[in-house]
């Protein structure tokens, strides 16, 4: 096929496809609207049930926040500000609809607008939107208090909104867990497609249980036989294998899906197949109230991408942004690094001094500096607490010369799982990641960031291949996607892909989320050695 020509189905494929879908398209225009209610009925019913439980959870946790906020304000007044006036319950009840009732209704309306009750997302994505909602609504109530000259307790109002930030997300999580336990949470889903895009889409949806999808099968539009077949994909984070039966198209696709219980449909063909099956996609959309289309956009920075349909035309404008290539986001990231690393160094300085003294007591220096490649390819000394013997390099040389298995492990990972060079205190520091404490100094110097790709040596650069440009675009980080995704248990190629994804899709909120997830990983000690 010549470059630039449209993809055209082979004649045999056209005939088979036409025969299989003839019934599906027959009288489609006349029955489309009626069928859209019938086919989407079960899914809509399940969605309404989920929405109801989540709305109940939000209402309960918001009222609980008001009650606990009152007692928190009383506690604050009694122990810290006894001069504050007493909280007048009668006045509070009079202004309750304005300061609590209407704002909390507005929170739920905005949550519905963002799809928090219907279009489910990973926790940190949803929580980021929720914080924006609370900030806006709390700001409106503050403005009202300022201009109304009300003597309503500011402490009560502030404590309430602070509690809402934490109790509402917890309430939603508990409601979702309860629905999982009751078998009401997961929606039966069929993915149309059986290639890489379909498998990765199924894994992405099903591995995050808060999204509420249960993929029942893949539907292969090219499969002609009824021979049982399965395809699998492994989640590198959990190590779990996801196995899906692969079905063939049996004449009337609409009827086939109805026989399967009218599942939620995800259209996830490979790029070259989309144009060949465009008519099928249009017909599916005509008979369903809701479905998902997942095109293959690998390698694009999708976070913050904006889709703009162009009036009258069958195309859309996808505007993507490389945040870390712009000065504004870089400045925000650097400012965040300076503030947080400075606070951490001050708060944790007693531990810093203790570990330094403990390592020096065993002999040798407390710190160990390794040459690493930083932003724009500039090398720097990456600091760590020394966790190995002073003669570690000599011992390593002897080990690699005498043990082929260790040599292969070193060449593969640049680490040894059971490294005999590690000291007793060093093993503890590594297990808890506290050996990387001194890298806060690298952050203050601007050589590293709190969150970013893992620092690599010049010999590892070649393993990044064409994606090395992403690594060089930002300072390496103390923690990152690699550290919260299994660390040393993750294959090197996967680590490279994680670093590239992080750089393409950077946001300050993701940095904050990764830091909180790092705390959990440190306490669990998973993947660290």
Draw up the topology in text.
Layout (H helix, E strand, L loop, with lengths): L10 H15 L2 H12 L1 H39 L9 H25 L9 H26 L5 H29 L4 E6 L3 H12 L5 E8 L9 E5 L6 E8 L4 H7 L4 E4 L3 H4 L3 H9 L5 E2 L12 E4 L6 E4 L7 H21 L1 H13 L5 E7 L5 E7 L6 H11 L1 H10 L10 H8 L7 H7 L3 E3 L16 H5 L4 E3 L12 H13 L3 H17 L5
Parallel strand pairs: 1-2, 1-5, 2-4, 5-6, 11-12
Antiparallel strand pairs: 3-4, 7-8, 9-10
Helix pairs in contact: 3-6, 4-5, 5-6, 11-16, 13-14
TL;DR?
The chain has 529 residues and is α/β, with parallel strands linked by helices. It has helices spanning 11-25, 28-39, 41-79, 89-113, 123-148, 154-182, 196-207, 253-259, 271-274, 278-286, 327-347, 349-361, 392-402, 404-413, 424-431, 439-445, 468-472, 492-504, 508-524; strands at residues 187-192, 213-220, 230-234, 241-248, 264-267, 292-293, 306-309, 316-319, 367-373, 379-385, 449-451, 477-479.
């Amino acid at each position: 096929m010549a470059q630039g020509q449209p993809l055209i189905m082979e004649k045999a494929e056209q005939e088979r496809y036409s025969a299989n879908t003839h019934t599906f398209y027959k009288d489609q225009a006349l029955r489309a609207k009626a069928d859209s209610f019938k086919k989407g009925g079960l899914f809509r019913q399940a969605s309404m049930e989920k929405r109801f439980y989540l709305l109940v959870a939000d209402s309960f946790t918001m009222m609980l926040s008001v009650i606990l906020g009152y007692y928190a304000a009383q506690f604050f007044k009694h122990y810290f500000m006894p001069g504050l006036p007493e909280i007048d319950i009668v006045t509070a009840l009079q202004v309750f609809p304005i300061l609590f009732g209407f704002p909390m209704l507005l929170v739920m309306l905005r949550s519905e607008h963002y799809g928090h009750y219907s279009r489910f997302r990973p926790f940190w994505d949803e929580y980021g939107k929720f914080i924006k909602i609370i900030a806006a609504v709390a700001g409106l109530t503050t403005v009202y208090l300022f201009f109304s000259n009300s003597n309503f307790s500011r402490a009560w109002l502030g404590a309430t909104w602070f509690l809402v930030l934490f109790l509402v997300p917890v309430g939603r999580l508990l409601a979702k867990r309860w629905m999982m336990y009751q078998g009401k949470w997961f929606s039966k889903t069929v993915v149309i497609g059986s290639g890489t895009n379909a498998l990765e889409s199924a894994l992405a949806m099903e591995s995050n249980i808060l999204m509420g999808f249960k993929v029942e099968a893949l539907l292969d539009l090219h499969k002609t036989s009824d021979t049982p077949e399965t395809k699998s994909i492994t989640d590198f984070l959990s190590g779990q294998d996801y196995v899906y039966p692969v079905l063939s198209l049996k004449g009337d696709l609409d009827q086939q899906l109805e026989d399967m219980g009218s599942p939620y449909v995800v259209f996830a063909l490979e790029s070259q197949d989309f144009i060949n099956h465009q008519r099928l996609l249009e017909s599916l959309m005509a008979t369903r109230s809701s479905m998902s289309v997942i095109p293959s956009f690998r390698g694009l920075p999708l976070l913050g991408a904006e889709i703009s349909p162009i009036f009258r035309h069958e195309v859309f404008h996808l505007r993507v942004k490389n945040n870390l290539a712009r000065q504004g986001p870089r400045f925000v990231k650097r400012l965040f690094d300076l503030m947080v690393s400075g606070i951490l160094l001050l708060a944790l300085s007693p531990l810093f001094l203790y570990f330094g003294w403990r390592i020096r007591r065993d002999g040798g220096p407390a710190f160990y500096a390794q040459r690493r490649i930083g932003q724009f390819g500039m090398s720097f000394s990456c600091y760590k607490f020394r966790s190995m013997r002073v003669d570690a390099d000599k011992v390593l040389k002897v080990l690699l010369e005498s043990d082929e298995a260790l040599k292969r492990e070193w060449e593969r990972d640049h680490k040894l799982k059971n490294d005999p060079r590690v000291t007793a205190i060093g093993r503890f520091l590594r297990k808890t990641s506290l050996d990387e404490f001194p890298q806060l100094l690298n952050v203050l110097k601007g050589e590293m960031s709190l969150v970013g790709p893992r620092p690599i040596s010049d010999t590892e650069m070649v393993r990044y291949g064409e994606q090395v440009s992403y690594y060089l675009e930002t300072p390496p980080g103390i923690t990152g996607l690699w550290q919260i995704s299994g660390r040393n248990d993750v294959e090197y190629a996967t680590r490279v892909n994680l670093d590239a994804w992080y750089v393409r899709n950077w946001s300050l909120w993701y940095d904050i989320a990764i830091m909180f997830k790092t705390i959990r990983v440190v306490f669990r000690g998973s993947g660290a050695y």
